[in-house]
Amino acid sequence: MLNSLFSSIFSTSGESTLSVAGFIICLAVALLLGAFLAWCCSFKTKSSKSFNIAIGLLPAAVAVFIMMVNGNIGAGVAVAGAFSLVRFRSAPGTGKDIITIFLTMGAGLILGMGYIAYAVLYSLVMGAVIVICNLTYLGKNSTEKVLKITIPEDLDYTGIFDDIFKKYTEKYESVSVKTSNMGSLYKLKYNIVLKNDVSEKEMIDALRCRNGNLEISISNQEVTANEL
How many whole angstroms separate alpha carbon 35 and alpha carbon 52? Predict the structure, then answer.
């Protein structure tokens, strides 16, 4: 009975057939699994609305293409050619975005072949893995901040804050230097990642003692959301 549960609904006497009922069932399951995977990918993490919609609909789209090809080599070549003409004009996604797309396509491929039980099992396992990664250290990204420091023109800024950065940050990088107030001030810009157990205020106080109590600001780095 277990073997029959995990067999393809399109297999009849060794020949692949497509019925209206089978098509509707696979499409409905694909939409449900797409919604489930979209929820898993957005759980405890940030993702755009358009990306979640794309992930939710991708298994259904892939399943339909596979069902329509249904062993026809000519149709398969036509579908491959159509996909090769598609160009994503949005910003490149992260590694997580790319693997999410392949993951949801896998669910669609399995459903397109009629293996509903395998598709559900695959989606449950991969969805659980994604949720676990989002809840643990594996799914956490270091928060990169932008630090801006104003110093007087007579202060040599080269390496002057290195000891403070080594004490309070995991990594730091000098981004830009520009003059201000008719050249009497310098504005330094750094990208930093604070250590988990340090106080942001303590670091600012240490920097204030070094830059003559001039302006200092820390802000989250602006990141443009990648959308499909």
Answer: 8
Token pair of 220 as six digits: 């989250």
User: What local confidence, expressed as pLDDT, does residue 74 receive?
Assistant: 59
Residue 143 CA to residue 148 CA, distance in Å, equals 16
Residues 168, 55 share a domain? no
226 in any annotated domain:
no
List phi, psi (to 5°) of 151.
-130, 155
In this structure, are 88 and 74 located in the same domain? yes
Asked whether residue 228 is domain-assigned, the answer is no
Q: Are residues 133 and 150 in the same domain?
A: no
Tell me the pLDDT band of 4, cut-offs 50, 70 and 90.
Answer: low
Cα(16)–Cα(67) distance, rounded to whole angstroms?
A: 10
Please name which of 41, 32, 88, 31 lies closest in space to residue 64, comparing C-alpha atoms: 31
Q: What backbone phi and psi angles, to 5 degrees, belong to 88?
A: -80, 120
Q: What's the rounded mean pLDDT across residues 185-200?
A: 89
Please give the residue range of the domain that contains residue 40. Answer: 2-139
Residue 33 and residue 13 share a domain: yes
pLDDT in tens, 63-100: 888 887 765 655 666 666 656 555 554 555 566 777 88
Q: What is the pLDDT of residues 146-189, one digit of tens each?
A: 999 999 999 888 889 999 999 999 889 999 999 988 888 999 99
- The whole-number pLDDT of residue 89 equals 47
R_g of the chain, CA atoms, integer Å? 27
Residue spans of alpha helices (H) in the chain: 2-5, 20-42, 49-69, 73-84, 95-112, 116-135, 162-168, 200-210
Domain count along the chain: 2
